Amino acid sequence: MTPIKLYVVRHGKTMFNTIGRAQGWSDSPLTEAGEEGIHELGAGLKAEGVPFKMAFSSDSGRTMLTMDILLEELGLTNQIPYQRDKRIREWCFGSLDGGYDSELFVGVLPRTDIFAGRDLNQVPYPELAQGIYEVDTAGWAETWEELRGRLLDGFMSIAKSLEADGGGNALVVSHGMSIGTLVWLLDPKRPKQHIENGSVTILEFEDGQLSVVSVGDLSYREKGRAIRDAEAK
Question: SMART domains annotated for this entry (predicted)?
Fold first, then answer.
């Protein structure tokens, strides 16, 4: 069987990303710069000759637009199966979804027992999820068990789809915190790492298990930027 790899992309930079708003299940469009960054990524992936057999994104508008751009750059629009899966959505921040990051991560959460004087990078994902669940006045936020379960279920389902079809690579577009959480679930000893817009995290599936190959790789985007800059001259 052909080796199974998931090329997991964080969507392009959005309006909310740019102005510092918590963007979980709420949504905002990609900025012009955000779209350009994904065009760069697509050009870089094409230049590297990475073959993709299937495509998957969350059902958020920002991931779907990112996927549309990537498939266009790769010449794969309507050429490979593409599915949208709500299981690989971003975290839900409940009643604080759409608010400023400073309100959630600097204002509200640090005052809870969950943070206990630690900064955001020192708080493990399960405790962070519990903190968000506790401060959500609307009752929309997920428990850690719900969040963990849907992410593992969603990404394992993608890997198993490839396995059932003889292996190969999948192009997957998801979200920053969800990708970071998945990496931590697969490799808890790995330090937390910020996942940049347009970066690629590669996962491998073998013997029924997902493992982390690389995290937040920007080299494909950088290669694509050089190609597009040269073409524009």
Answer: PGAM
